[in-house]
Specification:
homodimer, 297 residues, alpha+beta, Pnp Oxidase, Chain A, 2 domains, seven-stranded antiparallel sheet, two-stranded antiparallel ribbon, 15 strands, 32% helix, elongated
């Protein structure tokens, strides 16, 4: 392991380490207006939701590491108390990149990015027509985190209206493949959060699972089964008994397992369980591994 | 568009909309100890970095929507003021899921998930050996965002020590493919932020780009070029002049374009530019589109 004391490395390097570790980050594509009504649009990835009741989102417009200046978005929110946070889908990624350019203050990033401003319902800044979802927000508080280049501000906002493109919603839940969001990584990297990159993890937090420590010793120490395989087994709420094993395994499979068990062919047994896990048959995998303790004479 | 007044829908639905829009979210796999030293380990995705100087990360342990109770992690940080935030790579995803189960307080999620506690340098909670990066943190402040189920707490932490597995670092920058982080989406969805899902966007924020409004009218209105195509063109710092066009296009290509231009075959010209964009040749694409204004008689 590399161990780093944040006080002993340049801010630029520390910044990049944080960006590389705290990822992928959601993007707040923030629309604001100045006191004259001139719109501004800029992406920020020090951003997240933090509460649903009340609905609170927080983002930071940081002091620039290069010259310790602050940004138009921050000035505008300090003046007007309002912001619209738009989501960034893959379809507008390159237009978002153009809006990140430091154009002079009087230039509208809407014109420069070719994105379309649409009047909001409750706040002055417009939302982005092409964005799959927008949140009209009222600033509650700004907390300043430092005075030097790289220092952040927590811009704490309450969501007062949400707009969602009906094409990205199934029932009353958002479909990640349809909303097709981009997340921010370190350096010039982004992640497209749809398609094969999406994984589903079903794990009830209320049903108490057996846990790794209750798996048989030789399973815990397996050189065949990975941490994820063991996690799936540990996530079961019950280790199979005789009855469950008979329900999960065919007579032929039981014969095969009995023979492997007799030969003490542990790796082969574990590979057999691993194949069941790959097919999503976790209870079957557990039954293969629980066979010996239930059926050996 | 679906428009939602957050005050007029059930917290559960509002919570899911926020989770679906504000995504992908980084995961804070938070290790804490109670006043007796009993360790706790739990994942939170209302989490991000917010400042690099000082290095500040913030996460929220929310009041449960179901029964308005608060969580062990929050109690432990209130008591001890310390937390280690571990990154979640794909390799420990299922073990993280087991740690998310609401085991009784006296049960260690380290034992249940099979993850290995390692002593920290500066704080009492252990870090996770199998995590590719860990941040030892000292709590600076906790801001309570509400009193009802779903209400968050901003747990504002300063990073005092960072540990990174040297295998995920190239030079002094983290490689997203090697750290292989998981991000949290809505419902049971996660995103794996590596491999083909990673996109690179190079856009200098300091060099002023020409912008969408300076593209030729017929390019702005193209039915062939997408928002991303136009964003790439708008992101150039200069629209090609005669000299640049001659450098970008072969004599054969110039003949072909001249003929398409003469025929007013705009879609075909735009498809030719689109192919250049697909090959990453943005200046060439712009040269195809700028040909007419520079060379037509």
């Amino acid at each position: 392991m590399i161990s780093i004391d944040p006080k002993n490395i340049p801010t630029k390097d520390l910044h990049q380490y944080l960006l590389g570790i705290v990822a992928p980050r959601p993007i707040a594509f923030a629309s604001t207006v100045d006191e004259n009504g001139t719109p501004n649009l800029a992406p920020y990835s020090f951003f997240n939701a933090f509460s649903s009741n009340p609905p609170i989102v927080v983002f930071s417009s940081n002091r620039r590491v290069s010259d310790n200046t602050t940004k138009d978005t921050l000035h505008n929110i300090e003046k007007t108390g309002e912001v619209v946070i738009n989501a960034v889908s893959h379809s507008i990624l390159r237009q978002m990149a153009v809006a990140s350019v430091q154009f002079p203050k009087e230039i509208s990033e809407f014109s420069k990015s070719g994105l379309t401003p649409v009047d909001s319902d409750l706040v002055k800044p417009p939302r982005v027509l092409e964005s799959p979802a927008s949140m009209e927000c009222v600033m509650k508080e700004i907390i300043t985190l430092g005075k030097h280049g790289g220092a952040g501000h927590l811009i704490i906002c309450e969501v007062v209206r949400i707009h969602i493109d009906e094409r990205v919603v199934d029932g009353n839940r958002i479909n990640p493949h349809k909303i097709d969001l981009m997340g921010r990584m370190g350096r010039a990297y982004y992640v497209r959060a749809s398609g094969d990159a999406i994984h589903t993890v079903v794990q009830s937090v209320l049903d108490i699972s057996i846990g790794f420590d209750q798996l048989p010793q030789e399973v815990q120490k397996s050189t065949v089964l990975t941490g994820n395989d063991l996690g799936l087994l540990a996530g079961l709420t019950q280790w199979p008994n005789k009855e469950e094993i008979e329900a999960q395994l065919s007579p032929e499979e039981r014969l095969q397992i009995a023979s492997l068990t007799e030969d003490r062919a542990l790796p082969q047994l574990h590979y057999m369980a691993k194949n069941a896990i790959r097919e999503g048959l976790i209870k079957k995998a557990a039954s293969i591994l629980a066979f010996q303790e239930n059926f050996s004479k």
